Amino acid sequence: MKLPVTIDCCAWNYLFEQQLDLAIELPKGHFTLMMPREVEIEIDAIPDIGKDGNDKRALKTYIANSIASNQIQTTSVFGFASVESDGSLSPTQVYGGFDQGTFQSDKDRHFYATNEIKKQLSGKKPRPTRLAANQADAAIAVRSFDSIVLTNECKTKDGPLNFAAKKNGKVLYLSDLDLSKESLANYIRKFM
Length: 192
Known about the structure:
Number of domains: 1
Order of helices and strands: EHHEHHEHHHEHEH
Distance between the termini: 12 Å
CATH topology: Rossmann fold
Shape: globular
Largest sheet: 5 strands, parallel
CATH class: Alpha Beta
Helix content: 25-40%
Strand order of the largest sheet: 3-2-1-4-5
Structural class: alpha/beta
Number of helices: 9
């Protein structure tokens, strides 16, 4: 049986810095790699030149090549097109339509309905990605109950991923991985 692995946007920075070839590290015969639509939106919003002046084009190429060569699936929840407050179609669509998105499970709805997650999502202003703060993190966090989540987020950061980890979600912090001692695949297998 293949192990499901969901990749957070910030995990790509780590994977790129380590120059990991996911086809070798997490072969298709043993792992199913995926990311929620919200992460795809964050990736699309990575600028060529970052706020710090660093060139991000090599990172973007690495991500695009990894997604294509490893057939990383974009997952989404079924829904209809979002509209802006003026009634126009929103340029950022997180829902999948017919034959694209899956229905949200009762377990996922329960996660989003917890006071902790509602507090972290409600009233948040859109970021440059046009997603609200914590929206992508919540989409990643909810997946930690049915797949392994790879993230490079700070373990102590208060947010959906930390909340999911405390609720026994399988959130793997890449900062804990010592590649000189074990492979990414073995690190993941320890949590299954």
